[in-house]
Amino acid sequence: MKKYYFAIFKPFDMLSQFTGDENASLLGDLYNFPKDVYSIGRLDKTSEGLLLLTNDNEFKNKVLDPKNKLTKTYYVQVDHDITPAACKALSEGKIKIKHNGKQHQVATAKCQKINEPDLPERSVPIRFRKEIPTSWISLTLKEGKNRQVRKMTAAVGFPTLRLVRYSVGNFTIDNMKPGDVVEIHPNEVIPNWM
User: Fold this and answer.
1) How many angstroms separate the CA atoms of 135 and 70, rounded?
2) Any idea where the domains of the chain sit in the sequence?
3) Which fold has domain 71-168?
4) DSSP labels, 72-125
5) C-alpha–C-alpha distance, residues 94 and 147, integer Å
6) The Pseudouridine synthase RsuA/RluA-like domain covers which part of the protein (predicted)?
7) Which candidate, 30, 41, 20, places its Cα nearest to that of 145?
């Protein structure tokens, strides 16, 4: 069986799946993917950025299994001017979030405040309030629970306004635009992959 590996820049307001309500924006709208290719993990409908797709289960498991500590970096625009204390709390792995109805203590992460990254404009602009500033962080995780980044920033008092997955392993969305689909080699994500 031929193995396929794709990277896409998932646009805002698209589901990370191939089937759904006929009015929904779906992955198959971007490209005619081979039938047995599926996304590795998900990004929720309102999140953007890098999504990998493959029909190689071994590769998929290597990317998803937290034991392999493959990092995923997110650029996150948050409400208000985030504080050093909040960045420290996001890094330390002491935050508890709700996952599947249970409390989950997040793993240590890497968080730093950054200047606004050079990203394409979002198709639906972020709500702008003149009296309330926003700020950006780069947040690198080794795990990926459902809506984890949003839950983490909310837990430290800085709700997420815009969430863009910048990288998985070594592969980034540099030079990609929303809706782009590229066929890749798995070594671009995990060096020395077979």
Assistant:
1) 26
2) 1-68+170-194, 71-168
3) Alpha-Beta Plaits (3.30.70)
4) EEEEEEEES---HHHHHHHHHT--EEEETTEEEEPPP-EEEEEPPP--PPPSSP
5) 17
6) 5-155
7) 41
Q: CA 191 to CA 180: how far, in whole Å? A: 23
Tokens of 3: 């193995």
- Determine the average pLDDT of the residues in 4-9: 98
**Residue given tokens 């698209």 in the structure block:** 14
Q: Name the one residue in this structure whose structure tokens are 């800085």.
A: 158
**Residue 183 exposed, middle or buried by CB count within 10 Å (0-12, 13-18, 19+):** exposed
- Residue 44 annotated in active site: yes
N-term to C-term CA, the chain: 16
Contact 8, 47 (CB under 8 A): no
Q: Which position among 13, 29, 44, 79 bears the catalytic label?
A: 44
Topology given in CATH for the domain delimited by 1-68+170-194: Alpha-Beta Plaits (3.30.70)
Residue ranges with strand state E in the chain = 5-10, 38-40, 48-54, 72-79, 96-99, 102-105, 110-114, 134-141, 160-168, 171-172, 181-183
Tens digits of per-residue pLDDT, 47-84? 999 999 999 999 999 999 888 889 999 999 999 999 99
Q: Which residue has the tokens 């997110």?
A: 74
**Distance between CA atoms of 120 and 112, rounded to whole angstroms?**
21
> Is the pLDDT higher at 100 or at 80?
80
